Amino acid sequence: MSLPRSPLLKLNVRTKILVMFLALALISLMITGYVALFTIADVARSAESSSINLGREAIDVTTTALLESAEDHLVQIASDQAEIANVLFEDTDTELEIIAVQAATLQKNPPLQPVISSYGGDDSPADPFSAVLYRLVPGISLPLDSEEFRRSAGMDDLLRGTFVADANLTSVYLATDSGILRTYPWRNLTDDTYDPRERDWFTGAKKTPDVYWTEPYPDAAEHGLVVTSSKAVATPDGTWVIASDVTVDVINSAFLNTSIPSNGYAVLLASDGDIVSRPGLSVGNLSWDQPFSQENIFESSNPALISLGKNMTTGKTGVERVWFGKREAFVAYAPVRSMNWSFAVSMPVDEVTAPVDATRAKIARSTVEAGQSIDQRTGQIAVLFSALFCIILAIVIALAIYLSRIITQPVDALKKAALALGHGDLTHRVTLSTGDEFEDLAHSFNHMAADLRQNIDDLQRTNVEKERYQREMEIAKEIQVTILPESVPVIPGFEIGATTIPAMEIGGDLYDFIPVTGDRWGFVIADVSGKGVSAALYMALCRTLIRVCGTEQDNPQVVIQKANRLIYEDGRSSMFITVFYGVLDPQKMTLSYVNAGHNPPLLVRGDPPKAEILENHGIALGVVDDVSIPVSSISVERGDLIILYTDGVTEAFNERDEYFGEERLVASVCRNTSLPVQEIMAALLEDIRDFCGTAPQSDDITLILIRVR
Question: Minimal CA–CA distance to 305: which of 293, 282, 321, 291?
Fold first, then answer.
């Protein structure tokens, strides 16, 4: 029972094309229109949402960029200020080194008469900057005309010169083990208990050969907090210590507050975590003889500050974000390498991001305005799309009618041509002038019909030629088989086996057994260059010539020499043949042989069996007009096995292009040496087939096996 056919299937092609075009157009336009009208509002909302998101992303990117820029800027400030501090301290170190050299020089020269005046503590000059204070530690009685006192006075001008040259210094002074103190500018030390020899700057300098720096302490001359650099000089009267003071206020004004933003905060940190200098650091009400309590960053209750202090005291450069109470700040730091100190500068994070907040408000206002504009444009697009829908629908209907007519006419013509071709009319042709693919199809159809007729004729001729060629190849194969020996010779005391397997229908390998006078036999195995019919014909010629020469002579050298001359004279091609020719003497149990470029045979003997190569090298036959190859001779014994073979054995290759090779040949023969020669050959051929696998035979394979019983 057949199912009822759809009414659409009964229509012709033209009507089907028209219906399909109209249906496709209507469905596409209706779906597109519905989706477009339905999603226009969503597009507007998405656009507005995207605008808001873009604004937020812009704020985030700007904030990130500002924070990164602030970090880089603060690190640069910290590095620059640390370098300035480093230069300041290095300059001070250099100044002290120069003064120390002068002090050491004074010890070897007569005392100098200073230009600047010096006053004791009881006298005061009109201008403190015009005189040097000299003072003896209470309890010390040293004559003022003593040699050491006069030498120490020779340092006055240098103390003053150093002070004038360095505007950052508060004072420059000299103290000795004997209790002398000379300081510039003049200052009144009213406390009689002040002994410079007990101060940290004096004792510390004596412990190191380098310049010694103290941490901040209250100055005895009431200059506030000072930091002292000192240098010890050895003299005949004991140690002199030259020192200079820098106040913490000077350190702050010299580099801590330079190039730092107005809302920034700078700190100088010692290697043990003590704060050397910071804004607002002062001595308070402490006197010079009271210890100054250093602030230490490692005593902070803030873990982030402790971690920051570890990075600073280890000489690192970087920037970190640290919370100080409820406010987060950037802290950038860099090492002051000459002092093993570290400089840090901080800035509140919210002050960096303040410009972003103002921008955020502007973007919010712009986003609202953009949303209103998008709503207005969305309504206009909806109206325009509806009008375009109607216009496109009308155009599609007209094009569908036109295309249905254009397509069906060439199809009808091709249909008629196909029916004619199906009925065997190969002369039928299609004529179309549409200027499009249908015209190309018509030309292709006409060419196909003509080519089909030509191919049928060619196929018939090819089949005839192929059948003739196959018959000729079968005849050539039969002829080649008749050329080779029908059987192996029967030699008392010897077992002979031979076989050849051509790579093609016919091959270029040959073997032969030639009877020689005196019950001797000649054994020939040869390989013609090339394959196929040409190699087979050349092989037949060479076999005949070698056999003729072998029956006339018993000397292998003469046989090969004559055969080469005849092959060379008769050869009209560039082909040649490699030959191994040996004469077996059963009475003397010897094998005399020559090798004209052929694979050297193998001699297998002994228990366990071992293989020897019968070396004797000469040139292939047919290459030059005269060859002379010396004869080699071996004695054979019971159990010996001689294997003659062509290169098709050793050069058989597998799927991986690996050759069978002589090692596998020797292994196969030695493994089966106890078997009869026919079984040895069968086992060897089976090993070759297993090794080659699916790879095709690449060359002719020929074998002769001779066993001494």
Answer: 321
Question: Rounded to whole angstroms, what are the CA distances from 63 to 20, 53, 318?
Answer: 59, 15, 20
Mean pLDDT of 290-319: 79
**The pair of three-digit structure tokens given for residue 170, joined into one six-digit string:** 């508060």
- CA–CA separation, 70 and 401 (whole Å): 71
Section 252-275 average pLDDT = 69
Q: How far apart (Å, rounded) are the C-alpha atoms in residues 149 and 575?
A: 121
Give the pair of three-digit tokens for residue 44: 């507007």
Backbone phi, psi, residue 604, to 5°: -110, 125
What tokens appear for 35 in the block?
A: 């989706």
Helix (H) or strand (E) holding 528: strand 520-528
Domains and CATH numbers, the chain: 93-247 (3.30.450.20), 485-708 (3.60.40.10)
Residue 387 CB contacts under 8 Å (≥ 6 apart), including other chains: none
Complete DSSP assignment for 325-357: TTEEEEEEEEEETTTTEEEEEEEEHHHHSHHHH
C-alpha 351/C-alpha 329 separation (Å) is 9
What does the pLDDT read at residue 1?
Answer: 44
Whether the pTM exceeds 0.70: the reply is: no
Tell me the angle at which helices 13-106 and 354-422 cross, rounded to the nearest 10 degrees. Answer: 140
Q: Is-contact 514 551, C-beta < 8 A?
A: yes
Backbone dihedral angles phi then psi of residue 290, each to the nearest 5 degrees? -105, 140
- Residues 6 or more apart whose CB falls under 8 angstroms from that of 1 comprise none
Q: How many beta carbons lie within 10 A of that of residue 462, not counting itself?
A: 11
- Residues 563-573 have a mean pLDDT of 82
- As a whole number of Å, the end-to-end CA separation of the chain is 85
User: Predicted confidence band at 257 (pLDDT cuts at 50, 70, 90)?
Assistant: low
Question: According to the model, what pLDDT value does residue 18 have?
Answer: 67
pLDDT value of residue 7: 57
Query: Comparing C-alpha atoms, which of 134, 97, 96, 98 is closest to residue 114?
Result: 134
Residue 551: both structure tokens together:
């029956």
Report whether 532 contacts 555 (CB < 8 A): no
The sign one gets for the Cα dihedral 367, 368, 370, 371 is positive
- Rounded to whole angstroms, the Cα distance separating 440 from 436 reads 7
Q: Write out the two tokens for 645.
A: 């073979």
User: Quick one: pLDDT at residue 110?
Assistant: 77
**Whole-number Å distance between alpha carbons of 295 and 285:** 16
Q: How far apart are CA 575 and CA 621, in angstroms?
A: 9
With beta carbons less than 8 A apart as the criterion, state whether 461 and 477 touch: no
